[in-house]
Specification:
five-stranded mixed β-sheet, globular, mainly beta, Immunoglobulin-like
């Protein structure tokens, strides 16, 4: 009996101490205070500028993190954040924040300051203006093949001389340019890595090795669609990489088929596939988020190029039995309709001047296709099967054939300039500032 009473009294004593402690403690309900000294509200910046920021942050408790971040009007991040652990309280948070996305649209943004003490967090905003970077052509870029296993990349300098930018050893399947990150992507079919080279200094930034596949091939084609590089792979999948080489997308495999081209639309990554056994051709639409296959469409022709028009619609340029055809594929309902047959030869390459005008290189010259009235007319008949790129900032058309690069004005087709080339060109790109 005495033992039970002792235990009971000890229990009451512990409860009393706990109650005393809880009454004595107080919850932290005070939020950090943020006073923004720089930048001033309404400050205006150009894309590429550095924002000097300065904020005084204080709290009744020890601060454990402070952050600054550029957000849009809906408070969604548009650039990377700067975050540090404060070393004092109050703490002066100052530094430089670079507007380093050349594709950032102009408009009103907010610089968001955030502070936390581990319990409470506070935000403070200052509104600023960012002007959009005007898109401009920097220089043409060419890839040549002087001898077996050797591929040279040249850029055109301001004094109209060709400068060797990069030398690629091994096999070659294609190349692409990411102007926004100043990167050239280049890769082989089975042996050479997929490599990202910084322009214009030619420094290798990252690479992805080919996987082992039963056909002996791996990389089949490259397509850059901002902000990702999409790569067709021999195992029947399409993969996407960001500008630091991380894989961010992988489609399902389309069984027993190899993709040779791809294009991205509003909701899909659409690939041109060929069956490995029957040689039948298909257009296959994968969801552009998870990579799930949604549709496949049998087609009779050999696809030359896929050009995104709007929403999930794609212009399909293809060849069959010595003739070309322009069709429209709609990924929204897996429908395809012929727009314009081309009985005067075959297509080689297509480049968009804008959403309504396309330049088409073929076996009987360079043609101009107008989507609005569905017309295909001769542009420069002498340009036979030329490599082709359009500069819509200056309304110029660049072509390469043999060892000559010609530049034509659009839409009158007059020759603006002509450049001799260091060697026969196998790939042509235009590098812009964004």
């Amino acid at each position: 009996m005495i033992k039970n009473r002792t235990v009971y009294l000890l229990f009451l004593f512990v409860l009393a101490l706990a109650g005393f402690g809880s009454c004595d403690s107080k919850d932290d309900t005070e939020y950090p205070k943020i006073i923004i000294n720089q930048p001033l509200a309404g400050s205006s910046y150009e894309n590429g500028d550095t924002i000097v920021f300065n904020a005084l942050i204080s709290d009744n408790s020890q601060l454990n993190s402070v952050e600054v971040l550029l957000v849009d009007q809906d408070n969604k991040p548009v650039l990377a954040n700067i975050s540090i652990v404060p070393t004092a309280n109050p703490f002066t948070f100052h530094g430089e924040y670079i507007i380093n996305d050349p594709m950032l649209p102009g408009g009103t943004y907010q610089l968001r300051f955030k502070a936390s003490d581990g319990v409470n967090s506070a935000n403070q905003f200052v509104e600023i203006q960012v002007h959009e970077l005007e898109r401009q052509l920097l220089y043409p870029l060419i890839v040549t093949h002087p001898n077996s296993g050797n591929w040279l990349v040249y850029s055109l300098t301001n004094n109209n001389a060709w400068k060797e930018t990069y030398s690629h050893k091994g096999d070659y399947i294609g190349s692409e340019v990411n102007s926004s990150a100043s990167l050239l992507y280049i890769c082989g079919i089975y042996q050479s890595d997929l490599s990202a080279i910084h322009l214009p200094d030619g420094v290798l930034r990252w690479n992805v090795k080919p996987e082992i596949y039963e056909s002996g091939r791996w990389f089949e084609s490259l397509n850059f669609s901002y902000p990702y590089l999409y790569v067709c792979c021999a195992n029947g999948s399409i993969r996407g990489y960001n500008n630091i080489g991380a894989e961010i997308y992988r489609s399902e495999k389309y069984t027993n088929s190899v993709p040779n081209l791809s294009v991205t639309t509003q909701n899909f990554v659409i690939g041109s596939f060929k069956d490995a056994f029957s040689n039948d051709s298909f257009l296959v639409a994968f969801h552009n988020e998870g990579g799930k296959m949604i549709y496949n469409k049998f087609i009779q022709d050999e696809v030359v190029d896929l050009i995104h028009v709007e929403n999930d619609k794609v212009l399909v340029f293809s060849n069959s039995s010595g003739h070309g055809v322009i069709s429209l594929y709609d990924g929204a309902d897996n429908s395809m309709s012929v727009l314009h047959p081309f009985n005067d030869g075959t297509f080689r390459e297509v480049s968009a001047m804008d959403k309504g005008n396309y330049l088409v290189s073929g076996s009987t010259g360079l043609f101009w296709y107008r989507l609005n009235d569905n017309s295909l007319t001769p542009f420069v008949p002498a340009e036979i099967n030329s490599l082709l790129e359009c500069d819509n900032t200056s309304q110029l058309i660049f072509t390469c054939s043999g060892k000559t690069m010609n530049v034509y004005n659009f839409p009158d087709a007059t020759l603006a300039e002509s450049f001799p080339l260091p060697d026969t060109v196998i790939d042509l790109h235009l590098v812009f500032n964004k």
